[in-house]
Write a structure and sequence with these properties.
The structure is a single chain. The protein has 392 residues and is mostly beta strands. This is Homogentisate 1,2-dioxygenase.
Length: 392
Amino acid sequence: MPYYRAIGDVPRKRHIQFRRPDGGLYAEELMGEEGFSSDSSLLYHVHLPTAIVKSEGVDPPAPAGGASPNHPLMPRHFKPHDLTTGGDPVLGRRLLMANDDVRICYVAADADGDLYRNSVGDECVYVESGTARLESTYGALDVGPGDYVVIPTGTIHRFVRTGGGLLRMMVFEASGHIRPPKRYLSQYGQFLEHAPYSERDLRAPAEPLVLEGEDVPVLVRHRGGLSRLTYKNHPLDVVGWDGCLYPFAFNIHDFEPVVKRTHAPPPVHQTFEGPNFVICSFCPRPLDFHPEAIPIPYNHHNVDSDEMMFYVGGDYSARKGSGIDVGSISLHPSGFTHGPAPGAVEGVIEAVRKGHTETTEMAVMVDTFRPLNIGHQASSVEAGDYAWTWAR
């Protein structure tokens, strides 16, 4: 993360004696990335964070399913709202797409699950609808619609639903770390003035969360699969921590779009970067304002990327007649040129002539630099005629 935080009680210096009221020592846990040569935080536990009493393997949940290559090559349209709902925010995930760098899942949870730790990579969770409390070793954080929640590798946490109905989330499980783009940051990690968001837009836990309990299960995703570790004491027992590594939330409505006189390409919408992929936010913004602008995306072919777009709000004038609407997911793979639906260009030009000055579209986009395989769950909710809509 770009900046330092200190929460709760911590001693004056790192790695010195820090004692509980009963005279015993708090147990340190240093969470550090890249062999402790990158961001880290130092946490102080009431109990030993190493004390486990049981470990058992867990079979992957059947609804997650596998994934197959996009063959024959086609642009595709999926409707995740048609997937079976239910389950908890982890084991209830339905795999949509995946490659060796990122797994993209969708979940409509109606239950709270056990504590969870992803030890393979960071996770970025986009909350489509519903509200929840993220409880973790770093404290608690309330999240809701439009929030991106970035959870560092190895963080023990759980989403506890706080509202009625389903908690709908898109989950990006990375093979490494998810961060703000480097070009938005100074060499020391501060957001620069040209960045579309800043430190003030980020929310993080503000106070410790100390829970009690014994024989507490934690589901762990690791390089060998899934296991369930049972901790002797509740792992959410941190009285204080400091550092630059912690979960945080950023709401898509706080993204400040970059606007040009003519149409700007997707990099201006970039929000985060991960290993061989980027996450972008398409937000309401003024339309291109050159007097002869074509205020709609041009036909384009990002030859090095597969593009997945999750349409989360607003009006998609560029896709009229294609079947794409709020709740849709499109996949435009490398090897295929895509762009506005037939007639959309002239339609938007005419709308601007009549006084239309802004777009209301909202979408979450992921570009991957390796091909995305298609999850069997996604294939079950595919609109099969999407590829031919440009030829109508």
